Amino acid sequence: MQKRKKYIIKRILKTIPIVIGVTLIAFLILHFTPGDPARIMLGSYATEENIQAVREKLNLNRPLPIQYMTWLKNIVQGDFGTSIRWNRPVLEVIAQRIGVTLILTTTGLFISVFLGVVLGVGAALRKNSWLDYLCTTQAMFWISMPSFWLGILLLYIFGLQLRLVPIGGMTGPRSVILPALTLGLRQEAWFARPMRAEMLEVLNKEYIKTAKAKGVRRFMVVAKHGLRNALIPIVTMLALRLPWIIGGSVVIEIVFSWGGLGSLLVNSVLARDYPVVQAVLLLIAVTVVFANLLADILYTFVDPRIKLEEQ
């Protein structure tokens, strides 16, 4: 127990410099833009007075280190600045969009994990059968297909031709189906393949053979003994795939006119609303960092065989 506490504390301490690095990168995005950021935001027809006002508002006329420290101080206090496009607090703009993105990502994540586990276990239990080959083939198919093309294909078939679901926007529960499927199907393949490999390895363990020899029913052997241990790598896979799920949601939100953080990010880049761009990128990056931290911590509880580092 004491070792686990030390391990968790060390992991949290190691995360701090990563978060600081993430904030620095998000801050420098504005300054990596070629030219004068204030002039880029306002356009070529802006007057010098307006440009100077934006510079003062965003502290662009101060030294870079001071700008960063001021920006970081404001973020810690919950002040992400004001959106240039909407002339509203950035945090307020993000708060209106984040719920929609959470619905999409959590639904897509559930679909990917559920299908990945079911198909992976089925392929392992029917090794070298038609089901095994089918699961392997479908995994390669979904991985090879770009998310925007899959989304357009599903829209055409189920939205335009069959008219089973809305073709754009969030108009009700049915509107979640296609974007969540688009996100979940591509990610499902990344769970199905390692699940199959891990399940095959677990089924060859001595304790599984012992349980079978004692006459334990096959379902109980697979569900209670095999599946529980085979699911351990999925915890890590969830953290590893989270950046791709979030990144994929950006493209999917554009395809399905889904008004979440992804579409907000793209529209803010096009509108040169850099305070919003900085805040959204920072939010996504910090979410990924803490998801990996949570996975490391959960891993110690899920698998007691893991040796906790002491150095």
Can you characterise this structure?
The protein is mainly alpha-helical and 311 residues long. It has a domain at 97-272: MetI-like (MetI-like fold, Orthogonal Bundle), CATH 1.10.3720.10. Helix content is 76%, strand content 0%. It is built from 13 helices and no strands. The chain has helices spanning 2-32, 37-42, 48-57, 64-76, 90-125, 130-144, 147-161, 177-203, 206-213, 218-230, 232-255, 261-270, 274-302. Helix 7 (147-161) crosses helix 11 (232-255). The two termini are 16 Å apart. The mean pLDDT is 82.
Detail the topology: elements first, then pairings.
Layout: H1 2-32, H2 37-42, H3 48-57, H4 64-76, H5 90-125, H6 130-144, H7 147-161, H8 177-203, H9 206-213, H10 218-230, H11 232-255, H12 261-270, H13 274-302
Helix pairs in contact: 1-13, 5-6, 5-8, 5-11, 5-13, 6-8, 7-8, 7-11, 8-10, 8-11, 9-10, 11-12, 11-13, 12-13
How would you describe this structure in keywords?
311 residues; mainly alpha; MetI-like fold; 13 helices
Describe the global form.
flat
Based on the structure given, which CATH architecture of the domain at 97-272 is correct? Orthogonal Bundle
Structural class: mainly alpha
Find the count of extended strands (DSSP E, 2+ residues). 0
The largest β sheet comes out as: none
DSSP summary: helix tally: 13
Rg over CA atoms, rounded to whole Å, is: 24 Å
Low-confidence stretches: none
Q: Tell me the helix content.
A: over 70%
The CATH class name of the domain at 97-272 reads Mainly Alpha
Name the beta content range.
under 5%
Intertermini distance? 16 Å
